[in-house]
Amino acid sequence: MNQDQLKQAVGLAAVDYILPHLEEDSIIGVGTGSTANCFIDALAQHKQKFDGAVASSDATAQRLKDHGITVYDLNAAGELEFYIDGADETNEKLELIKGGGAALTREKIVAASSKQFVCICDDSKWVNVLGQFPLPVEVIPMARSYVARELVKLGGDPVYRQGVVTDNGNVILDLHNMGIRSAIELEQRINDIVGVVTNGLFACRPADVLLMGTSEGVKTILAK
Ligand code: 5RP
After folding, report:
1. What angle do the packed helices 58-66 and 34-43 form, to 10 degrees?
2. Which atom of ligand 1 is nearest the CA belonging to 31?
């Protein structure tokens, strides 16, 4: 199977995973990216079995609406049963790097508002040590240079993601060359820098379960 087929397989697996728990009034959280899109497309076949979704980005909201799925504001939805989203990297604790699609802040908010975070990805995202994928940091535009200097002090090489403005009107610094051995500590330290909105480490609130596409089928992995 190629990577696209693995993404489709985990999208379907995520639908199978949540479907038995969905009720007419259920609202689910939906992530952003090509793997999340596979989930949305598979979910659309079952849109009469739940009420709607909260989207983690404008792009996801549009895709859900295109399928005729009702999109709710998170403030109107309350606590969500499930959040389903992809990742750029995961380790065995299901600590993640996310934000390759610049949607990290809303993704983190919707994940925090959900009882269960189901991560979906293909096995190219599995790593022993997080940080080969540059860590995205969402920053208030006027703080960009200051935050970059502070990130250098932490030992990384921040690179401004040219031409990208997040759905929240901010910019992204991608932090290269961090071998991340203590993800919770680093997530908190970066978030303490004035001007940072949030960073793409999902370690304080990791995924609860990972559905990982492999050539031997989809594996269900719980955090170690
Ligand atoms: C977007 C994300 C995505 O979940 C992450 O980049 C993975 O994307 P894809 O499924 O396309 O590989 O965090 O901000």
Report:
1. 30
2. 4
pTM over 0.90: yes
Strand order in the sheet with 27-30: 52-55, 27-30, 80-85, 114-122, 209-214, 217-222
Alpha helices in the chain (DSSP H): 3-18, 34-43, 58-66, 74-77, 104-112, 144-153, 183-191
CA of 35 to the centre of ligand 1 (A): 7
Q: Whose CA is nearest to atom 5 of ligand 1?
A: 87
Long-range contacts of residues 73-76, Cβ cutoff 8 Å, at least 24 apart: 74/109, 74/110, 74/113
What pLDDT digit, counting tens, does each position of 90-103 carry? 999 999 999 999 99
